[in-house]
Design goal:
The complex is a heterodimer of chains A (502) and B (393).
Chain A: H1 3-23, H2 48-55, E1 66-69, H3 75-81, E2 87-90, E3 93-95, E4 99-101, E5 107-110, E6 118-121, E7 130-132, E8 138-140, E9 142-145, E10 150-155, E11 160-163, E12 166-168, E13 173-178, E14 181-186, E15 189-191, E16 196-201, E17 204-209, E18 212-214, E19 218-223, E20 226-231, E21 234-236, E22 240-245, E23 256-261, E24 264-266, E25 287-292, E26 295-300, E27 303-305, E28 310-315, E29 337-338, E30 342-344, H4 352-360, E31 369-372, E32 379-380, E33 388-389, E34 395-396, H5 421-431, H6 448-455, H7 459-467, H8 487-499
Parallel strand pairs in A: 1-2, 2-5, 3-6, 4-7, 5-8, 6-9, 7-10, 8-11, 9-12, 10-13, 11-14, 12-15, 13-16, 14-17, 15-18, 16-19, 17-20, 18-21, 19-22, 20-23, 21-24, 22-25, 23-26, 24-27, 25-28, 26-29, 27-30, 28-31, 29-32, 31-33, 32-34
Helix pairs in contact in A: 5-8, 7-8
Chain B: H1 4-10, E1 31-34, E2 37-40, H2 71-82, H3 94-97, H4 144-153, H5 162-171, H6 175-182, H7 192-204, H8 212-217, H9 226-235, H10 242-245, E3 256-258, H11 273-277, E4 285-287, H12 309-314, H13 343-354, H14 383-391
Antiparallel strand pairs in B: 1-2, 3-4
Helix pairs in contact in B: 2-6, 2-7, 4-7, 9-13
The chains are: A alpha/beta (502), B mainly alpha (393).
GO molecular function, one term (chain A): heme binding
Pfam families (chain A): Beta_helix
Protein name (chain A): Cytochrome c domain-containing protein
Chain lengths: 502, 393
Amino acid sequence: MSKGNIFAVVLIVAAFFVGRHWFADTPTVMTDSRSGAGYSGGAESTGSARSGLVRAIHTAPRTGTVHEVREGELIMDKVKVAEPGDTILVYPGSYSETVYIDKDNIRLSGVIEKGQRAVLDGKGHLNDAVLYSGNDIVVENLLITKYKGNAIMGQAGNNFEIRNNIIVDTGVYGIFPQLGKNGIVTHNVISGIEDAAIYVGMSDNIHVAHNQVFESVAGIEIENSRHAIVENNYVTNNTGGILAFITPGLPVKTTYDVIIRNNFIVGNNHPNFGAPGSTVAGIPPGTGILIMAADEVVVEGNIISDNKTAGIIITDHNNAPNTTIDPESDPAPDKVAILDNLMHNNGYDTIDEAKALMLTEFKTGNPDIVRVGVSRDSCIINRHQYVTVGVDNWAECGFTHTGDIMTYLLDKPVEPREIDPSEVGKVAYLGICAGCHTYTGRMIGPPVQVIQALYMDNAQGLADYIANPVKKRDDYPEMPPQDYLDATTRLAVAEYMLSVSK
Amino acid sequence: MKYWPYLFMLFSLTLQAQDSVVLSEQCPPSFELRSGQCYLVNRYQFYDSLQDRGVGGTQTGLPAFRDGFSPQQIDLGRYLFFDPLLSKDGSLSCASCHQPALGFADGRARSIGMDGQVVKRAAPSLWNVGFLKKLFWDARASTLEEQALGPLFAADEMANTPQKLLADLTGNAAYPDLFAQAYPGSDAPLTLPNVVHALAAFQTSLISLNSRYDRYALGHHGALNEQEIAGMNVYRSFVARCAECHTPPLFTNQQIAVIGTPEPEGMPLDIGAEATFKAAKLKGGFKVPTLRNIVKTAPYMHSGRFDSLRDAVEFYTKGRGHAVPAGVDMQIHWHIWEPKLTEQEIDDIVTFLGALTDESLMPVIPAKVPSGLSPLTGFQPTLNQQQAEYTDE
């Protein structure tokens, strides 16, 4: 092969790539690392199926439509047309909008090309970047900055996956799934948040892992939630590192069964820039882990160092600043378990309250662990390693590690409630039509008996009428269209209306 | 969409002869009759909610609901609710302060009770009241029955006594029979517990869950226009944070929150839930009210300080604690902050709140009540009513 030929081949290859780049008619194909073959290593592996869970909830190949968004277009335009099961690929470029997803099963995925990401830029005036209320939502690979509210906020979506996002200097919370069940928050890098970088609120079965959170008021907060694992995160230079809270005054009242393990919780000494009145505004800078009122919190295997106030603070509501009271929530952190952790150089510039507590126990030194207020049935192992106050009378724990628990994620995603098709018709009939139609009497609309005589077994005809009613009777008002019910529901309600007998 | 006035005319037939009323054997719309009792049926029941608390996002289940009353009990409650016989001198019914056309509130900053006395607080809407675990602004009652004893016997409200109330009902030509119909198998059906039970039964039938917002939430995204959607997104954003307290689907999370609203000029500070729970940290705390049918219920807040919905919304962006009287120590809720909402955003929220209107299950106002008194006693067409009708397109 002559040199000229090689040159030509190179040119063709270059043209191919240029073409892809300029015209980009085929979507970038991403190798999905969350499923597929795993590295089996030298030794015989065990439990790999379970560990896969920790990285992804939705592992089945996606069969829906792929919508592509490029700079200059609106992501929302694609969300509006997307159907459950679809993927929205956002190519590198700058986007400035609030993306709200009130649908189930949408994957919003940034495409990363040579380190370039799709940037959602709130420009300091938009509220939230991504706001979802559907189930089975995936938000990944984005770069989000300069929003005033939250970067990614979930309101009651189950089975969520929020991963691989970079969030910089964005409002109140970085990632805030709320009122959801079964979700993961992994591999995100978040900084500059005036409350919690990652805030799991009122949720169940959560896995927060492999995130880097820094220069925020709180690093990771688990609040009024149950069955959560926070592991392998790098939590540094926040005001407070990792928080497990019961916040009083919320409709879900408990936090329990939280494992905080194998995190790096290092040098969380950032000045507190929390909003006045916010719960985190009361956190003393230099707090590694803060457990407030939460029960059954296990702290294990973390490296907790260089936090100037204390490595771990455990408090009840009565000793915490900025908290209200709630007769329905128990203010005491019970059954806290502190297992082995590497604690080093904490408490070297601690607060007066901690010093005063130490005086009561005739202790000196820099506190690693401070407990204040009531805490029942809590335990600790190897307490001799640490400078502590308030834990002398804690029991020795009956267990030493959490290794048997891989994750609290559910084996299968939360399924939507099973709805019998006949129920759909009945519920729509009783909940909507019955407001204007009764079986025999004249109400706002004509009696159902009359309608049955008109339509007999023509349910489809009835379903068509209610989608777009025309005026039929002079002595009745017009019937409002019921087109907000989907076609299946309209047919179901038509069938039900034709079947009622009283 | 306003159909309820027709109801009023159409149903004037039900009560022809005073003494031969037959209570309804049908459950009100949105209820299903099972073994003689009415149970709520609604599309939100297709969904779950975390820890069954009935708070969440768009497709979230409702909280536990108080149902299981018989059709007759509900119907009896309706007559009682509209009958001024329940007051000391026949001058006030429950409906005088909870008027159907005014969102079951009364259009006043503070209600007017017996002999023109102005009471301390505003009458709340009763729509969806059957979902509430705590009643009154300060959450001092836990059941509808317990609640009803308040207005019946408060000197500045209906000013009755248990003795006179029972004597009046027993002496009436129709009520003994109506109570017997509603409480069959009971030796003495006409008792105070049954009076308040029937009132509770009727109030639970006030269901408003089919607004245009609900149609959006349940999947029909065309139900809201662009401005309403913009407003919804501000409403649930973490800047405005309205949805953190006025949480869907009921638009209340049913918690106590101290937000520091001002009293009307010259009125002393109302300490609210501090009194109920004997807790200084709850000074000025009130139960988060629902925002459903909110355009119908001006003026706003516990003592009606704000005449317009826009003023009520704007309150939240005027600064944390800005209206707390000097020298008063109030622990303002953490979600009350400095959202710096723009004028446009405030307008958008107000527009969105208009999409929470649904009166499709308006109960029928009885044409006559057993006492022969007017069921419209104390009703007044107010400015608010006209405004409300105007905003409801």
